Amino acid sequence: MKHILTIIILLCLKLYCKAQTPVIPLNGGSSYGAISEAYYKDTENFFGQFEGTWIYSNNGTILKIVLKKKEMFYEDGIGIHFYTDYIIGEYQYIRNSIEILNTLSNLNSNHNQINQYNITGNTQIRGTLMPAACPECQRGEKRLLTYYTEPRTRNVVGLDTEMVFRRFTENGVTKLKVWFYKVSGSYRVTWDGQPSDVETHLLPYGEYVLIKQ
User: Fold this and answer.
1) I need a surface site. Which of 17, 66, 119, 167 has the fewest CB within 10 A?
2) Which percentage of the chain shows pLDDT scores above 90?
3) pTM for the complete prediction?
4) Is the peptide bond before 135 cis (omega within 30 degrees of 0)?
């Protein structure tokens, strides 16, 4: 009986501590990840506009991206543990009517490391020049910066790639512009020290405009 009572008390304390977690706006200017057990929340629902299924189609080439908001993801860092919101995504890439990539099933997995998803991000960017030039962007307009990987390149050292998303409406159609570019190149070696001949991703770099489905 004493043992059961102890367990109940510990559970109550855990729930109480969780309830006391400070909620901090994710892009509110506070030092991200500096407060242990804090919840860095997308309080303005900036991520919500990107959720859903988006498709680019052109002469037998199809890029399908599905994005989902993942709330209160637990980041277990060194000495600091906190919660945060993310956009996660997966994709299907078809070229000349042949499927080259398809990671869509991974979107429903419950990973405990955010980089196990192939598109991840939670950073707002402003401006029309960096990191992807956007002359059509309005002053102060916000875009979403994410990181991209593929199953075959996940373990390759140095091959870092980003995607920037901008949602807009054109002639009554909701669209998503994607800037897809390499940040750094492959070192031709894997993280476990094995040689690799992988130098780039299978999805070509460039700009894509996808339509909301």
Assistant:
1) 17
2) 78
3) 0.87
4) no
